[in-house]
Description:
This protein is α/β, with parallel strands linked by helices. It has helices at 2-12, 15-27, 43-51, 79-87, 97-107, 122-128, 155-167, 184-193, 210-215, 230-237, 250-253, 266-278, 280-293, 299-311; strands at 33-38, 55-62, 91-94, 113-115, 141-146, 173-178, 200-204, 218-221, 242-245, 260-262. It is 45% helix and 16% strand. The strands form 2 sheets. It has a 6-stranded parallel β-sheet, with helices on both faces.
Amino acid sequence: WKLLFNRWTAKLVPSGLWTRLKLYKALGLCGKYDCIVSFMEGWSVAVHSKLRSRARRNVTWVHIDMLANHYSSGFFKNEAAETEAYDRMDEIVFVSEQAREAFFKLFAREYPARVIYNLIEKDDIIRKSSESCPVEKRRKYVLCNVGRLAPQKRQDRLIRVVARLWHDYGLDVEAWIVGEGELEADLRRLAKDLKVDDRVVFCGFQTNPYPLIKNADIFVLTSDAEGLPVVVSEALCLGKPIVATRITGPTELLAEDAGLLTSMDEKEIALKIKALLDDCALRSHYEAMARRRSEIFCPDKSIEQIYAVISGENS
């Protein structure tokens, strides 16, 4: 609703006034800063571009493949206004190489940029995963998905995959869908229509989703677009076999045979999952490969990179 609210008000309230009201609420009327960071596309960078004169350095983050999902355009009057906002930044930070490539293709120009992976605290994730799991396993196999219940995440695709695995292949499987969002009622209705409502568990928002990921057999990401999905990084840290759509983010994270990539076709997704469920040795292989791949996450290195971008070092 926040996205709709901002898009609606942007058309009714003069952009300069609306921006200033939000800026003053967040940062106060006065102030000079060493660095201002807008950590999101859309409204954040739109606001930031109006504030840039208050800082010695201005940096913005891009978290998504904007070529595949240019949702941020709704926060600007036109494409030129969005381009101008990025023109005002000293540097743009991308969460993946593929997100950077997509951005440059979309805007057809080069900007000072670097890639910094999301900060993943591997040891903390592993520790928290040992806490009690809030959901009891009811079926032989459990698939887990974590994310907002929003169009981009396509949990409807996962529900159809569960129906196919059960009705067509007879696999005793259930899905734990962790998250909340505007599509929950539609997703519940879909599960009921496909006669798998007893095999799809809506777990709601969880402050600690790691026990759910740990206790699942496979982590499944069915999104249409991502930047560098944190949930895939977390599943790697927990040594989970992963099946993910072949989009920006997962293709980078699951390099070196760290997981299985698939098209967005539900039959192909189902067959990839079936192959893992039918072969214990194959699941063990991808568990080991996930743990090995998770070695790329180093909190100290990520912090050093963030400090460097704030200070402008090596820019």
